[in-house]
Design brief:
The complex is a heterodimer of chains A (354) and B (263). Chain A contains eight helices and 20 strands. With 354 residues, chain A is of the alpha+beta class. In chain A, a hairpin with a 3-residue loop joins strand 16 and strand 17. The relative contact order of chain A is 0.12. Chain B has one domain: MetI-like fold, CATH 1.10.3720. In chain B, helix 4 crosses helix 6. The longest helix of chain B has 34 residues. The chains are: A alpha+beta (354), B mainly alpha (263).
Chain lengths: 354, 263
């Protein structure tokens, strides 16, 4: 098997008695876009800062292209980084900001000027070279920060929540732009975010982190559809959780409230009488009986939210509430609160959370 | 609302009167040298005095060296404390305030005891050595002003992130301080520099006790022996100080504007 481009091996980081990263390992292939996704305090930024060289691991090592860089200073690593707070130098123009790393590396002025122009073209701000950072919007500043990070052709690009300070619309367009530039340049990238939609939409792989550990590493499809732990299932996407009791382990029968569903082959060693947490994504549930759906549960509609193209419906089933979305059809009026309703789903879509 | 405004103006007028009346009286008195008419005779005498030029030149030079020493010590120290040792800030702030509570005479007597001709560091054994000691003493006196000015400047920028951004782009400490940090706090440094200049120009105790030909002792000497010239000198010294303050204001307009501080 080929050697990974970046290998984070059993890295641990403690600040005093507080261990924020515990035994984190990850291999990243050349040109791959990997996101670290997790809630605040999960250690994702600390791992990124260790890769950048701003924090020294308490244990473990970080290898890039076969070379151990664990003890190297940040300015010796040839890594580019974009910060959440832009971090453009306020006293320098846009062009001078982008040229900063090139100048430090001793690139001749003519070559540096050419590279700056090339970078400004890549980020689609070719006329902005003479402006100062304070004359730019947040989105433009972050694109300049990206250009500055990639101008010296780093081996690795680190993005530390670069979209968090931007408004929602700019966030969406900029994340697509980041991904397209990354693909075009083929630069190996690590992206830190707490926004699952961001991570799911642009990553090749996602490492979902919790409590200083990687709970699951996988493609966005795997992370969303086959969450390995209860935390991943709850953190990524919206999830309806129902409590069930195994009534017949051999045939996979589980009682939810007073109704029974069949989860054959999914109970993994559970015994009759065990209590389970069962989860369903909203898009896996239909209102009413639908062909191809082998399981159903009855309840009462407790809430209806009209969202335009979609209608979000909440159905009370015993003590639990299940949320599902149906497409708005002008010919069919939305269901009414208090109506009896049946929801149907494929038992294969149901996740048993451990 | 209107009553509040009225009293605000009353307080302002009282404050202005407290400030301007002695100033106007001094200007008026300094111009009375010629009997029966106002003239600038006192100013002409003072400005034409060779001792004025010599002592003023000496103090300007001492101020320049004091500013250089102050900048070299305070900028890296304040930067490092903000970046790596924020827990030390209260202690360092306390230390920088000490020159305000310890009289200059105590410091200078300490110098005389410590650096006399018999000490291992005999600064006072030569004129140049004494000059150096005087400049170091001035840097100590100006420390509270220089440190506060630089620290305030550093507060307006995100020191840590800018440092890290420069580091990851390959910059070493020298480049970071000279090309990223210093240009962004230059106006604050200049503010500290002009305050230092104003302090050094009028300083009497240290220069007098170390027996150096500075402007402060000259001011005192003239004040003790002449009538109108001290008033003229006071106005000149006042004009220099205000000139320094005005320069701070003018230069602050040219400060690099950060994204967080657009105007």
């Amino acid at each position: 098997m080929a050697e990974p481009f970046l290998s984070i091996q059993h890295v641990r980081k403690s600040f005093g008695t507080n261990t924020v990263v515990q035994d984190f390992s990850l291999d990243v292939e050349p040109g791959e876009f990997v996101s670290f996704l997790g809630p605040s305090g999960c250690g994702k930024t600390t791992v990124l800062r260790m890769v950048a060289g701003f924090e020294e691991p308490s244990a473990g090592k970080i290898v890039v292209s076969g070379k151990d860089i664990t003890r190297l200073k940040p300015n010796q690593r040839n890594v580019g980084m974009v910060f959440q707070a832009y971090a453009l130098f306020p006293n320098l123009t846009v062009a001078q900001n982008i040229a900063f790393g090139l100048k430090v590396a001793g690139m001749p002025k003519a070559d540096a000027d050419r590279r700056v122009a090339e970078m400004l073209d890549i980020i689609k701000l070719p006329q902005m070279g003479d402006r100062y950072p304070y004359q730019l919007s947040g989105g433009q500043q972050q694109r300049i920060a990206l250009a500055r990070a990639i101008a010296p052709k780093p081996k690795l690009l680190l993005l530390d929540e670069p979209l968090s300070a931007l408004d929602a619309k700019v966030r969406v367009s900029l994340r697509e732009e980041i991904r397209s530039i990354q693909k075009k340049l083929g630069i190996t990238t690590i992206f830190v975010t707490h926004d699952q939609e961001e991570a799911l939409s642009i990553s090749d792989r996602i490492a979902v982190m919790y409590g200083g550990k990687a709970e699951q590493v996988g493609t966005p499809f795997e992370i969303y559809n086959r969450p390995a732990t209860k935390f991943v299932a709850n953190f990524v996407g919206t999830l309806n959780v129902l409590e069930g009791t195994v009534t017949d382990a051999a045939s996979g029968k589980v009682r939810v409230n007073t109704q029974e569903v069949s989860l054959k082959g999914k109970l993994n060693g559970s015994k009759s009488g065990d209590t389970l947490s069962l989860a369903l994504r909203p898009e896996a549930i239909s209102l009413g009986r639908q062909p191809g759906r082998d399981s159903s549960l009855s309840g009462e509609i407790s809430e209806v939210h009209f969202l335009g193209s979609v209608i979000r419906v909440r159905v009370g089933i015993g003590g639990s509430t299940v949320s599902l979305d149906t497409f708005n059809s002008p010919a069919t009026p939305p269901p009414a609160v208090g109506e009896k309703a049946e929801i149907s789903f494929s038992s294969g879509d149901m996740l048993v959370l451990h | 609302m209107k009553t509040g405004r009225f009293w605000a103006w009353v307080v302002f007028a009282l404050g202005a009167a407290y400030f301007f009346i002695p100033l106007i009286a001094t200007v008026e008195f300094s111009m009375r040298m010629r009997r029966g008419t106002y003239s600038f005779d006192a100013y002409q005498i003072v400005l034409g005095d060779a001792r004025f030029q010599a002592t003023f030149g000496y103090s300007v030079l001492a101020a320049i060296f004091t500013i250089i020493i102050g900048v070299l010590i305070v900028v890296p120290a304040a930067y490092w404390i903000r970046l790596r040792l924020p827990q030390l800030r209260p202690i360092v702030e306390f230390i920088t305030l000490l020159p305000l509570v310890i009289p200059a005479i105590v410091i200078v007597f300490g110098y005389i005891r410590m650096y006399g001709s018999n000490s291992p560091l005999p600064f006072l054994a030569s004129d140049r050595g004494t000059d150096l000691l005087l400049v170091i003493g001035y840097a100590t006196l100006a420390l509270p002003y220089m440190y506060r000015a630089v620290d305030t400047g550093l507060r307006t920028i995100d020191v840590r992130t800018l440092t890290e951004a420069a580091q990851i782009l390959g910059a070493g400490w020298g480049t970071i301080i000279t090309r990223v940090i210093l240009p962004n706090v230059l106006i604050a440094v200049l503010s500290g520099a002009f305050l230092t200049f104003a302090i050094v120009i009028g300083e009497f105790t240290m220069a007098s006790l170390l027996n150096r030909p500075a402007f402060g002792p000259y001011l005192q000497n003239i004040g003790a022996n002449r009538a109108y010239e001290p008033a003229a000198l006071a106005i000149i010294a006042f004009a220099i100080t205000w000139g320094c303050m005005s320069l701070i204001q003018i230069l602050s307009r040219f400060a690099p504007r950060s994204a967080n501080r657009p105007n």
